[in-house]
Amino acid sequence: TQQTRIQTVYQPGSFTPLLRIETENGEQAKARHRSLAEVLQEDTGVTLPAELAVMLGRLERELRQGSVSEESQQWLAQCGLTAEQMAAQLEAEYIPERKLHLYHCDHRGLPLALISPEGETAWQGEYDEWGNLLGEESAQHLQQSLRLPGQQYDEESGLYYNRNRYYDPLQGRYITQDPIGLRGEWNLYKYPLNPVRFIDSLGLKFHVNGDPSDFNQAVEYLKQDSQMKETIDFLSSSEETINIEYIEGTNVRFNSNNMAIYWNSRASLFCSTELNSKSQSPALGLGHEFAHAQYYLLDKENFMALLSRTDKKYENKEEARVITIIESRAAKTLGECTRGAHSGLPFYRVDGPLQTMKITGTPE
Questions:
Q1: Which of 192, 213, 223, 336 could covalently link to 331 via disulfide, CB atoms 3.0 to 4.6 Å apart?
Q2: Where is the RHS protein conserved region domain (predicted)?
Q3: Residue 161 above 80 pLDDT?
Q4: Which letter does DSSP use for residue 47 in this model?
């Protein structure tokens, strides 16, 4: 705003807000200071070469951190200077006063309240199932514009800006068409039909049952492999909507009947049953199912044919195709282990979708 700068810290890999930071514009101005290079240039009236300005910038960072590198010390010594002399040239840093509030959100990431460091409720709102704000209270007159994940309230239009298009909470639908057209779905204006379970934080694709943080982290991780990125991009732009269902067990799978991937973001699959062997991350397990879904959409008949043909090592030919070609390549790109079988391998429970383990005892 004209008076205040509001920053939001989000849960990694998601659009769920965690922390609100308010800084008055006057405080922001006080926090500005000249760099060491600017001080020397302005005080001496000499324009420094770009290379020297870069070296001074690095030295300034080291001085403010209280740890000057050996390389910088040698450079200063050659110039007949000391770190103490240069530190005396630094302008003092001003830490602006800030107001902090913690977000209290529902299971989808919709803000329900703002909590002060003292534990007081500074703002609270009530919504219907489609994210329409029914009422709000704030003794401090706080304005809270975040809505469903990825959405921000636009006061002028009364709509919610959803990154790629506008959403009308009164109708429970978008008022602008899906930017990817019919590749998203035949209904160009639809928001998830069950907004209590599903969200659409980008206004695009993939319906995630629950908090999308683990899913988003896994997707970004998998995109480091070019073939996995192609698979994900294909699924994101396909006519079918892929539902991601979180499960507690180890029966991770792709179901072509309802176009759903059942995934445990905490189940790490081992490549071998021997001690000290490593596991694959849950994210790579998700990528494995992505590969099944892509091939099903590309060639349903051949997908079903491969699924029906048995394989001694990999259970069926479709599993053999994914494990030995797509999964194996992605594992090598991501620095993970490759497996030589499909069923019968143990799982370990890990703390996140990108974590791997080493066998040191009895698996789950």
A1: 336
A2: 101-136
A3: yes
A4: P
